[in-house]
Design brief:
The structure is a single chain. The chain is α/β, with parallel strands linked by helices and about 280 residues long. The chain has one domain: Ribonuclease Z/Hydroxyacylglutathione hydrolase-like (Metallo-beta-lactamase, Chain A). The strands form 2 sheets. An 8-stranded mixed β-sheet has the order 1-2-3-4-5-6-7-8, with no helix packed on it. Strand 1 and strand 2 form a beta hairpin. It is globular. It starts with a strand and ends in a 10-residue tail after the last helix. Bound molecules: zinc ion. Zinc ion binds next to loops.
Length: about 280
């Protein structure tokens, strides 16, 4: 049974509780996880909906250092862990903003937005983990699955024995994969999608509005459709390149974002992400 509490909605999958954020977890909101073992409880990706009324936990895992995944981190004065590849961005907001690759004035605006709208504060105490790290909660383990591409340190988490795989921002939306940061990599994103195809789980939880997918077959077909967006973007680009174009013309053609989305800064905050409605 779902219970609405302080901006998030709880739903149980085995002993894993998904804290669905406001607006079904669409950006700037997101979905968080609450995982309880006999010895310890952890939270994954405390979202904007956990700024108030966050459930207690002994530690926090962060799938990657993006603002929508850490907005509720201030609710947790406990150890926080993230992959080595995103550690500096979690420790310092300046590093996080630098990773967006903005021009100086845009970077300043982004830094203010992170601070004021997403409550982002540096966590110099954050600790790094690597692929395969296991967090033993007592009768329940959470294993790190490194899935780079979206960011260098982007990770999923496999909860066992429940069979719940959190896939974070491999979010299966019709927008498709996002790889627009300095540390992003399309090739790594594709390799991560390939890795995910091979992992059998009962549930696959995304960080955003597609929520939780049940069953490997259903997950794989949605993953294939999601990966197909990359191919569509490439086909569009190749069609556009039937005559010589400058980089500026290619940028202006809006291969990834819809034409009405202006600029990368605005795009990030006001609609570039699927379902994004945040306006400043
Ligand atoms: Zn992200």
């Amino acid at each position: 049974m779902n219970t609405r509490v302080d901006g998030y909605t709880r739903a149980d999958y085995g002993r894993v509780t998904v804290l669905h954020g406001a607006e079904r977890g669409a950006y700037p909101y997101g979905n968080s996880l609450l995982v309880k073992g006999s010895d310890a409880t952890l939270v994954v990706d405390p979202s904007l909906s956990l700024v108030e009324g966050a459930p207690p936990a002994d530690l926090v895992l962060v799938s990657h250092a993006h603002e929508d995944h850490i907005a509720g981190l201030g609710s947790y004065d406990v150890p926080v862990h993230v992959h080595e590849g995103d550690l500096e961005a979690l420790r310092s907001p300046e590093s996080l903003v630098a990773g967006f690759g903005f021009a100086p004035e845009e970077a300043e605006e982004a830094a203010a937005m992170l601070r004021e709208r997403f409550h982002v504060r540096g966590r110099p105490d954050a600790r790094g983990f690597e692929d395969g790290a296991v967090f033993d909660l007592g009768g329940r383990t959470v294993t790190v699955v490194h899935l780079p591409g979206h960011t260098a340190g982007h990770c999923g988490f496999l909860v066992e024995p429940d069979g719940f795989l959190f896939v974070a921002d491999v979010d299966l939306t019709s927008f498709g994969p996002y790889y627009g940061d300095v540390g992003s990599s399309l090739a790594e994103f594709e390799a991560s999608i390939g890795r995910l195809r091979e992992i059998d789980a009962r549930w696959y939880g995304t960080a955003h509005q597609k929520g939780v997918i049940e069953g490997t077959g259903e997950f794989r077909s949605r993953l294939d459709a999601y990966a197909g967006v990359i191919r569509r973007r490439e086909e569009t680009l190749l069609r556009f390149l039937t005559e010589p174009r400058t980089v500026e013309e290619i940028v202006e053609h809006r291969l990834v974002y819809r034409p009405h989305v202006r600029g990368r800064t605005c795009g990030r905050w006001s609609g570039a992400r699927p379902g994004g409605t945040w306006t400043s």
